[in-house]
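hey can u check if this looks right to u? its 356 residues, i copy pasted from the old doc so theres a chance i mangled smth
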Amino acid sequence: MSDWLLKSWCYGDYCLVFTGVFQNIKNTLQMPLDLSNILVVGVSSRALFDLEKENEIFDKEGISGYRKYQLEHEDELLQPGTAFHLVQSLLHLNTNAMSQIVEVVVMSRNSPETGVRIMNSVRQHRLDITRMAFSGGGPLAPYIDAFDIDLFLSKDVKDVQAVIDSKSCAAAYIYAPPKEFKPLNNCVKIAFDADAVLFSDESEHRYKTQGIEEFHKYEQEHEDEALGEGPFAKLLIKLSKIQEELPTAVELSPLRLAIVTARNAPSHMRVIKTLRKWGVYVDEAYFLGGLAKDKVLKAFGAHIFFDDQEVHLAESSKVVPSGRVPYAFDSPLFKSNLKGIKLEAVKVQKIQPKDY
């Protein structure tokens, strides 16, 4: 290459042109990747794949037993976990768009050595995932910003709580997969609860402390005021922008967004007007007024449903993949829910000590 460039110098301007081309290539390779217009999902290996048997081995035999088992079975395909179909369908959106709109990062507490089985399974399932983080037993929450994550899905209570507390991105604790869930097609369907998920927990706190009548009265009187942003607000806004990048009209988009909430009239109008002020298009909304959410979610065919309350998730998680959004440490609802969170965390840790 150097000899060719040296000889080309004799041809005057041509050398300058070629040198500029190579310099541009060099500069392009050195430029940091811009993910501002791409949805970046961080998913733990246990949320992506079924690793419950492996966790039992870890619980009984410790890290040495777990490492031995993973090395002996590293060519054995891992079966889909709760978030698998969501991840698979989100990645498929890239085939419909003019440019990449979804990026997935596998985030695992495995070491690179024990993570080989996870890498092999990603390849065998033909998931277009190129970025991975193996923290060797350390927490994953500190790496959220490093990978520009918009949504973090994990089965580790502490990691999810840390991300929510940091307000870095949307995060949810993933429940066990429903036994009979099968996506109807490649259309991605994501369902959200309203208060304390998309919107701030102010209204929910008012309902819990002042009752339903005061809640409805306040919401009706303030329906023209936008609700505050909740932990999943920025995610919803980004998903709405991604809809615009797809070649079909938004009404026919392969990415469908739904709100499934216990709100009903007259408190429903504030939700719709808030979405308008955010510039967000939501395909479907269900104001249930206390009706169970599981049947609506099953009919919708949600690839995942996000809610903050166990009372709704206990049943919904049996029919669609579901994730709980914990309250941030500075939320007035956190203290009232703290005892329940601690009890659940202890229970989960006894059964599932590490989110591998």
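The CA atoms of residues 25 and 227 lie 47 Å apart.
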